[in-house]
From TrEMBL:
<dbReference type="Pfam" id="PF16355">
    <property type="entry name" value="DUF4982"/>
</dbReference>
<comment type="similarity">
    <text>Belongs to the glycosyl hydrolase 2 family.</text>
</comment>
<dbReference type="Pfam" id="PF18565">
    <property type="entry name" value="Glyco_hydro2_C5"/>
</dbReference>
<feature type="domain" description="Glycosyl hydrolases family 2 sugar binding">
    <location>
        <begin position="29"/>
        <end position="192"/>
    </location>
</feature>
<dbReference type="Pfam" id="PF02837">
    <property type="entry name" value="Glyco_hydro_2_N"/>
</dbReference>
<dbReference type="InterPro" id="IPR006101">
    <property type="entry name" value="Glyco_hydro_2"/>
</dbReference>
<dbReference type="InterPro" id="IPR006102">
    <property type="entry name" value="Ig-like_GH2"/>
</dbReference>
<dbReference type="Pfam" id="PF02836">
    <property type="entry name" value="Glyco_hydro_2_C"/>
</dbReference>
<dbReference type="InterPro" id="IPR040605">
    <property type="entry name" value="Glyco_hydro2_dom5"/>
</dbReference>
<dbReference type="InterPro" id="IPR006104">
    <property type="entry name" value="Glyco_hydro_2_N"/>
</dbReference>
<keyword id="KW-0378">Hydrolase</keyword>
<dbReference type="InterPro" id="IPR008964">
    <property type="entry name" value="Invasin/intimin_cell_adhesion"/>
</dbReference>
<dbReference type="InterPro" id="IPR051913">
    <property type="entry name" value="GH2_Domain-Containing"/>
</dbReference>
<dbReference type="InterPro" id="IPR006103">
    <property type="entry name" value="Glyco_hydro_2_cat"/>
</dbReference>
<dbReference type="InterPro" id="IPR032311">
    <property type="entry name" value="DUF4982"/>
</dbReference>
<dbReference type="InterPro" id="IPR017853">
    <property type="entry name" value="GH"/>
</dbReference>
<feature type="domain" description="Glycoside hydrolase family 2 immunoglobulin-like beta-sandwich">
    <location>
        <begin position="208"/>
        <end position="306"/>
    </location>
</feature>
Amino acid sequence: MNYKKLFLFLNILSISFVQAQEVRKSILLNKNWSFSKGDFKEASQIGFNDTKWQKVTIPHDWAIYGPFDENNDVQKVAITQNLEKEAKRQTGRTGGLPYMGVGWYRTSFNVPDFKKGQRISLVFDGAMSEAHVSVNGKEAIFWPYGYNSFHVDVSDFLTENGQNNLLAVRLENKEQSSRWYPGAGLYRNVHLVITNPVHVPVWGTYLTTPYVAKDYASVRLETKLENVPNKTEIRIETTILDQSGKTVATKNDKRKLNHGEPFVQNFIVNQPHLWFPENPTLYQAVSKIYSKDQLVDTYTTRFGIRDIKFIAEKGFFLNGKLRKFQGVCNHHDLGPLGAAVNVAALRRQLTLLKDMGCDAIRTSHNMPAPELVALCDEMGFMMMLEPFDEWDKAKCKNGYHRFFDEWAEKDMINMLHQYRNNASVILWSIGNEVPTQCSADGYKVAKFLQDICHREDPTRLVTCGMDQVSCVLENGFANMIDIPGFNYRVNRYEEGYAKLSQNMLLGSETTSTVSSRGIYKFPVEKKLDAKYDDHQSSSYDFEACSWSNLPDLDFAMSDDKEWTLGQFVWTGFDYLGEPSPYSINSWPNHSSMFGIIDLASIPKDRYYLYRSVWNKNAETLHILPHWNWEGKEGQIVPVFAYTNYPTAELFVNGKSYGKQTKNNATPENRYRLMWMDVKYEPGEIKVVAYDANGTKKTEKIIRTAGKAHHIELVADRTEMQADGKDLVYITVRIVDKDGNLCSNDQSLVNFSTSGAGNYKASANGDPTCLDLFHLPKMHLFNGQLTAIVQASEKAGKLTFEAKAKEVKSGKIVLEVK
Ligand code: GAL
């Protein structure tokens, strides 16, 4: 979508919000919370004294401030999924951060213009975890799963006049409850929703497009209503607006509802603009609900019109066009911001992924933040939403299996109702590598979950990430999943395809190649589980874990076999926790190395390998490694180029090392150009790329850097919104006098800000670095790091400055509007 269009659309949204306010209000409860770690018997009670507690704004993650400690949540286990046989001390599995324990949040809220009889709900987008929510001293709801959204009608708990209501939330994270950093606290938003007695409940509409073609689409809207007195006539006037705000269909229907069924309306949209990642057009259905001719509620349902089909033998079709998922799996944390959700941070992630050519996201292995799904609708990413990493059998001692029997259906229903109107959501996944897949009765649990999806949303199919290929091919588990998804095991795809009745296969999780940005190991060899004294992995992209593989194999599978549906790479971004291959007794390591983009949100070399294959609209020519190898003169330093062109020639200080052309000798030779016998000499390397006709298309040069001279700052935007939330990511680099990156520089950089905003956090992408994200100083990792600044609520100029010893400092001024 172009930005003008998006702006117009958001404007329309806010106009309809103003209209909606007459009868329905939704208020964000994000300010004026008091927080304390620890347990307090009386903290849900009105008289409790919390004046000494910390004042916080939510979304808030209590654990991201550290400190890192290897003794935080040490798990002595054998990770069978990683093929481990003996229980060993796993360090950094959940990031070495103090997420465990009890924490309390308290605030007070008013219901503006409160009238007796109104229905008031609280909506939690997610609370980590085991949330006990009380209002005015009485428990309103308990919701154990930290990733799910939930809501509760609190009308009967309020004060007489609706003012000064105490809201208290007790959260508890048990140790050994996760395989990665889960975050802690009220890390997503909390909303207060005020409606009339007759109203549309939370997530109360279900919009589908039963027929989609070029000339017209049919749209079916089901609206649930609550508290409609018997025999009352209800009128709903719904207008469908296109992206420019133009009315494209409208209906004004009167009906008496029997047996509490939903109110159904059907529409025809002529010449619809279809939703697809490259042009994610959205519509909205704005409904006005009248009871006895009184306007009682308004409700807006945003949607897209698109047609999804999975065809056996042929693959996945969106709006009639074949495509293979070019997807990534992501965990929910935002690196140095922890789990606390932030729209600007999510948008930054998606912007980088879009440029790489990625078109799909798997929310591994849990429900996402609603803001992420909304952004995927707007920016054009197909989503696979996946609720669980565990069902009834444990992966972690205190994992979700404790709640599965009682809560799985409720958790599924919330996810399905919340996201079944979203255009971006293409597939539901019912789980990831659940141990249940190997038990004789495991298929029954899978069927139970799949049936819930079919019942609540018959328009989408269901997958499941399966890693125990032998089990699931034998015991019937894989055969009953709509879309079989294999995690890794590319070498068994053919067998899966031959044995399964679905005649297609999804790479539900692939690759798990490991690398550290800017680190290169010699000699350059393909290795599994390679470990080095510095606890890093090589960025030649030749290293994977024992269960995983290099990207090239998955590219080849997708290119060669028609029945493959594409893939979701593990992972788009590095995340906190799971520092494989340095997980056993390997402190300090606190974050993953699987990411295509590092924890500081700086692309690794691998980003350009994916870009060269996935982004068909842009030119890619990327060279690695850097060219600062003092002490290695005369020794072999291989040079790789990641490019969309088939051929390139390498020159070192003007001397040709010859042309390389992509070929079928090995999977790597198909997708990379590699000069393995280059001898290092300082100076410059140049790669010249040619198309298939031998025409020169582009060239790139990198040079040996001289002495560190100054700090260069590159901001991802120069303007920010004065909303107290917006973020700008600033890449901080130390360069020589000519601007060449000093790629071996690990200096400490100090930051300061002044004016209309503040320093928020920084990260360098080094999984072994224990610098705290929220302090205004950080070591460079191989010459680079990222500092994040946050806008204030007042407009003005925000100045950011970065200083390091012996180099000229850097300064940047951002406009906060
Ligand atoms: C998979 C698992 C992911 C992550 C990954 C690391 O088996 O589904 O959650 O652990 O391995 O390679």
